[in-house]
Amino acid sequence: MDIPALTDRQIQILKCVIDEHIKTGEAVGSDTLDKKYNLGVSPATIRNEMVILTQQGFLEQPHTSSGRIPTPMALKFFIKQLMHEKDLGVSEEVDVKAKIWDYRDRIDRLLHESTKVLSHKTNSIALALTDQGDVYHAGYSNILDLPEFFDIDVTKTVLSLLDDLDTMQKILNRAYGEEAIHVLIGDDFDIEFLYSCGMVYTDINLGSYGGGRIGVLGPSRLDYPYIIPVVRYFGKLINEITKNWE
Prior knowledge:
- This protein is α+β, with helices and mostly antiparallel strands.
- The protein has two domains: 8-82, Arc Repressor Mutant, subunit A (Orthogonal Bundle), CATH 1.10.10.10; 90-242, GAF domain (Beta-Lactamase), CATH 3.30.450.40.
- 46% of the residues lie in helices and 15% in strands.
- The chain contains nine helices and seven strands, in the order αααββαααββααβββα.
- It has helices at 8-24, 30-36, 43-55, 72-82, 90-101, 107-122, 152-161, 165-172, 224-242; strands at 59-60, 69-70, 125-130, 135-138, 181-185, 197-205, 211-219.
- The strands form two sheets. It has a five-stranded antiparallel β-sheet with strand order 4-3-7-6-5.
- A hairpin with a 4-residue loop joins β3 and β4.
- α1 crosses α3 (43-55), α2 packs across α3 and α5 (90-101) crosses α9.
C-alpha cells in the first residue's frame, strides 16, 4: 500500500496522537494535543491537520467521540519510521534470564515459564508456539481492564484464537518481511473482531524440536517502543538456551 507523503507538521501531530493514544487508549482531540504537547501552532491548525490526516487514512474517528485514533496504517508507519525503541537495562535483562534459566532442561517448562514472565513484563497476553503443534500462553487477565476488550465479541475472539492452532498458524504466516521481529496490526489478522488488536512476535530455534515463535497479543496500541525490544530479547535468550539441545 502506498503511504501518502506527510509534512513535518503532520508527522509531528500524528506522532503525538499515537503517543497519547498508546498511553490512554482514548480518542485524542486537538485540545488535548494543544495542552499537553508543545506543537507551536493554534488548536484550529491542529484540528485542520487532523482532518487531513483522517482523509489520508492515518486517523479515524470513533462513533462515540469527537477525537481521533490512529489507524493500523498509522501504527505501522510509526513503528517503521517514527519510533525510537526503549533500551532494556542490564538489570532487566538479568532479571528475565534469572527467571527462566532454571527451566532450560525441558521445552515445555521453558516455554511455559517464558510466556508467564513475558506476559508480566508487557502486561499483555504472551504466547509461544512450536512447529510440533504445542501452544503456551499466559496473561489473559492483562487485557480485561483495557477498553478495547470491553467488547465481548473481541475478547471471545482473542481467547478462542489461543486454542485454535490452525488459525493462529495461518495468521502468523501472514507476517511480511524478513525482519527478526514481526508485527501484525488490525486488518493483518483478516478477522473482523481483531481489528483493534496488535501482535508482536519473533521466531525461535528449539534445537532438535525444530522451530517456533514467541510474542505478545494485545490492543493495537501496544507499547511498541518497549515491547519490540523485550520480545527480541526473549527470542535471543531462548535461542541461547536451546542452541546445544539435541
